[in-house]
Records
---
Amino acid sequence: MAETNPIKRYRSNLQDEVDSAALYRAMAAAEGNPQLQEVYRRLAQVEEAHAEFWKKRLVGLGAGDRKRGPGWRSRTLAWMARRFGPATVLPIVNAMERTGSAGYDSQPEAVLAGLPAAERSHARIMKAMAQPPRGGISGGALARIEGRHRGGGNAFRAAVLGANDGLVSNLSLVTGVVGADLSSHDVLLTGIAGLVAGACSMGLGEWLSVNSAREYYQQQIATEADELAEFPEEEKQELMLIYQAKGIPEGQAKILADRIIGNPDTALDTLAREELGIDPQSLGGSPWSAAGTSFLLFAAGAIVPVIPFFFAGGMAAVGIAVGLSAAAMFAIGAGTTLYTGRGVAFSGLRQLAIGIVAAAITYGIGKLIGAVATG
């Protein structure tokens, strides 16, 4: 339905801008780092300019009203910034900017004035500030230097969880059909089928996930290219603020931003990396490589409870399968301590308990189904 009266929307936009400007002013006042102070002040100035834009629109409709002050949420966050420091509220502001960055995309007046690009710029600047600077001295950066947050931790974690998924799911499947009193041959076929089906599902899911992420990144870079072509000065200012947020003095940040924006190809590559956190060359990696890795990791875990049924049968094969799986589950749980920091015994036994409970449940269900099927 077409909008008949935009006054309510204009007033809501105005209030949002007033809130943001007041919050950034409070963060600037509470910030001890002069470079970050300037970033917050510049952000506040942009929000104040946006507020003036909506005030003029309201006046043009004969709806100019009283001077607006910040709302309760903005006042509360401002108080927290003054009391505990801007870093305390920075994650909240980062989340707010991320959520609201697309708010102007469907508003034609805002689009014509270039407001959506500015809001996305603020969201990216907040994201950059919320992350520890690469060469700074924040606690997060020091922790990374000391090795407490390992860069390869995510890859290792994914590998452990992938193998664990295959192990627990296929052990549960095998014990379920054992409970149903199927022959060792049937158990072997079922285990192999579960391995192949699960690994294919994991691989396909990973391919879709990575490919979707790549398509999203490509769309983000295309949007950034459009904004760079349409608003080069704003993009330069944005890049300069991001470098200031990373700890580079204003003068050096301006020189660096000028030099980068002067070359369109370099500018787009740099903006994609600095603002969006995207490597234009890799776009998050190869979906085929991710799919293959996921397939193999799942299969590596899923093959463990099946191995005994290749050379043994009956309860002997079941006992060996459970023993091998238990040892593997303990090892996987112990391996997680490399990125969780928990004790080896605790993590290993917890993982073992989870796997045994899952296998026991499926064994009981298989036993029940087998009894019903045989009358």
Note: The first helix runs from residue 7 to 30.
---
Amino acid sequence: MPIKTNLVASGHSIIVLDAPISSEADANDWVEHLDFVSSKTEQKDAILIVPFTDVDEATAFAAYPAVKSCYRIVAVCYHGAVGFEPELAAGVAATIASEADPALPFNGCKLPNLPVVDGSSRLTKTRIEQALHAGIAMVDVGHDNKPEIVRLISTYQINPVTGQADDLLLDINAALILRYVRRDLRAAAAANPRRKNTAAARRNLRSLFLDRCLKMNDAEILEHVKATKDELTVVQSKLDKTAVDARIPSHWVRGMHVINTTLDVY
């Protein structure tokens, strides 16, 4: 599509659609675009926000095979808010863009640009949970009678390599944190582009990466960095003597989405 052709050069961190995707071919096309601009060559990580005002349509979209294995798509649904799809997507995008901490979840964030849907259009909590389990980020009317995000998840449900069910990258925070870590480490490495590919230089680069990861551990973006520091390696590539292969364990901090409570009655 011409629009995506224009987007390729800059990548864009957040791409917002003003209407649902109803065709699997269009869905596949967008997944291909996201994979390309977010590749290790292009390095312009992007996420896509697709708005829905019908939970069944959103469920059908999230069930497309390519969509189910993509952690860069937010299929956000505010059931019953027909005609407000552009505002829905824009409100979610603005909420994401305004948050500096990539690990902080978006539960309860208000979307003041949206109307309060009629009571007959509101879903039960059970139906909302079913939609969340189907890979749909849900918006609902909160206790204060204002539209708010229930939980901002991606459509990721299936590991694309194994084909097995997987929730490792479920919340959109996974995409945001991985983008943050990549950009931080790339910027640190790019600050000194003139390095010899020697053992000493590789040790120096490893120390730089470890230092950055430790800072992200302190900021509660990554965790267990000290415990897994031996897994952080920078070695000369076996395929190209001018390249190094760096492996960086990234245990990303999850949001507190569920609070299980037991009442012990005496």
Note: The first strand starts at residue 14 and ends at 16.
---
Amino acid sequence: MSLSKVNNSKIIAIFFVILIFSSCGFFTRYGRFQVRAERAFSKGDLDRAVELCVDALHQKPGYKESLSFLDEIFPKAVKFHHQNIQKLQSSNKDFKWDYVLPEYEQLLYLVELLDGLNLPNYEVLLFRSEAEDYGTLIQLTKEKAAETHYIAGNEFMKSGDISDYKNCADEFKKALKYIPDYLDSQIKYEDCRHNAITRMTILAFENTSGNTNHGDIGKSVSNELLSSLMNDDDIMEFIDFVTRDKIDIILEEQQLSDSGLIQDDTSIELGNLLGIHQIISGEVTYLDTGGPGHTQNKKMMEKKIVTGTRRYQDSEGNDQKREVYLNVFANAIFHKIHTEATIKVSYKILDVNTSRIIHSNTVTATYVHEYEWVTYSGDKRALSVLAQLMISREERPPPSNTKMVLDVIEEVTSKLVSDIKKTLI
């Protein structure tokens, strides 16, 4: 067989393959949706298969392959969720209605997907799938979930313990999430929340770092910490902070000095006077600002560039053009400014009633500032792409040490808040 005949046979074969795939929609958007739907079904993801099948039909209404596939998989998806619901309803799982609800919500979502297609056999498909009135079932499930959490809240209320008051507040809040204004859940939530509140204060942190160049760093850290905690809704639900103003009033009335407040016995005495449950105290144990460090990396750069063309005759006497090259050079200096500030803060949370340290930790944070630019001499054309981009940057002065200290205080405060929340929430 000649080479030309072989090539023609390959071309014909490729043409038929393309024709076959085109006929089934493989190269169309709706066809790709259908292929993905079948792939999702093979992996057991029935909901995703329905979604993709619906997407295909939105692209091409009446697409037989998707219609047929949807007819097969939609009842299976509905059955899958019904089985999950039956298992949950017959189980002894705590707060099982919380888990039943998303199943019904997903079923409603699938029915709404189907409804959006305006299929002529829509009602028949729903009947075959044994679909129900999921809107009504969702509302009934929300009521059952709210009732379950309401009962749990009432049980927690019987204890009278501060931790149980927090739990009962959480349960009434969950009941309200399902059914706003459910019975007297709002009133009971407020009552439980009030009884669960921990009165807390943050004493001014001491600065034991030996670095006194930036004012009262300890006080700056504790003030920033108080501000951050008071702006955190999760913290403030069950915490009432006693501010420094109230502390100063008590100190003045009792003719006490704040110089010894970092000591546990003095802190406890103050806590009892103010009706405080917990006290946060701490100290800045390390503070350092490094830099500015200015490094310079010198590089000699060379590049071969085209400067023009030159005419010449080839071996057959034909006129040709040849590019003319020239080596160009430049000396580049890569500048880098690196400055940083590091702070280390130790703190503890003291229980006033038991004199016990509830939690303590040391948190370290570092703020880093870096800036780079390039200067050069010689032929600019010799510079690398990176160097050419960086020569447009002008030299900038580094941030002041004071600015870096403020930034590193913000960094360490964020870490302190995150650590404290693990204990308080």
Note: The mean pLDDT is 87.
